[in-house]
C-alpha cells in the first residue's frame, strides 16, 4: 500500500491487521461495495503500535515466487492464519460469536475456499467451547 507509515510498527504485523478478516469486514461496511481509497482507509481504526507489535508474526510471501494461487492454497499455513486472525479479533475486543458473524459475511470465501472456511469454522467452535479442542 502506498502511503502506509509503519515507523513504530513491524511491517509484517501491520500487514496482518490490514489482511485480517476483521479489518476487511469493517472496511467493507464503510465502502458499501465501492473501491477502497484513502478516503475509506484513513478513518479505519487500528490498534496502537505496542499492541500490533505483540501480534504473531506472519512472513509475507510472494505468490508468484512460491507458486500459490492464493494464500489458503497452502494448508500448512492455515493454523498460522487462524492464530493471526483470532489474535487480531481479540485485539479489536471481539469474541468467538463476533468472529462467527464476520465469517458469515464472506460468502465468496465460503464458496471459493470451502475447505479453508470449514477449518476456520471448526476453530471458532473450539474458541466457543475449549473442550472441543
Question: What can you see in these coordinates?
Answer:
- This protein has 133 residues and is an all-alpha fold.
- The chain has one domain.
- It is 57% helix and 0% strand.
- It has nine helices and no strands.
- It has helices at 11-19, 21-31, 38-41, 49-52, 63-66, 78-91, 96-104, 107-112, 114-128.
- The model has no long low-confidence stretch (mean pLDDT 89).
Total number of helices? 9
The global form is globular
What is the helix content?
Answer: 55-70%
Uncertain segments are: none
Q: How would a crystallographer describe the biggest sheet?
A: none
Reading the helices and strands in chain order gives HHHHHHHHH
Number of domains: 1
Structural class: mainly alpha
- Mean pLDDT, rounded to whole units? 89
Rg over CA atoms: 15 Å
Number of E strands: 0
Beta-strand residue percentage: under 5%
CA distance, first residue to last residue: 37 Å
Task: Give the SSE map.
Elements: H1 11-19, H2 21-31, H3 38-41, H4 49-52, H5 63-66, H6 78-91, H7 96-104, H8 107-112, H9 114-128
Helix pairs in contact: 7-9
Amino acid at each position: 500500500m502506498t502511503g502506509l507509515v509503519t515507523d513504530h510498527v513491524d511491517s509484517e504485523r501491520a500487514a496482518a491487521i490490514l489482511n485480517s478478516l476483521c479489518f476487511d469486514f469493517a472496511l467493507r461496511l464503510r465502502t458499501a461495495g465501492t473501491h477502497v481509497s484513502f478516503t475509506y482507509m484513513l478513518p479505519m481504526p487500528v490498534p496502537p503500535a505496542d499492541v500490533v507489535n505483540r501480534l504473531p508474526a506472519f512472513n509475507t510471501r510472494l505468490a508468484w515466487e512460491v507458486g500459490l494461487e492464493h494464500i489458503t492454497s497452502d494448508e500448512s499455513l492455515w493454523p498460522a492464519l487462524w492464530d493471526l486472525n483470532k489474535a487480531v479479533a481479540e485485539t479489536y475486543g471481539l469474541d468467538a460469536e463476533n468472529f462467527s458473524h464476520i465469517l458469515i459475511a464472506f460468502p465468496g470465501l465460503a464458496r471459493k475456499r470451502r475447505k479453508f472456511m470449514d477449518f476456520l469454522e471448526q476453530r471458532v467452535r473450539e474458541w466457543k467451547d475449549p473442550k472441543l479442542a
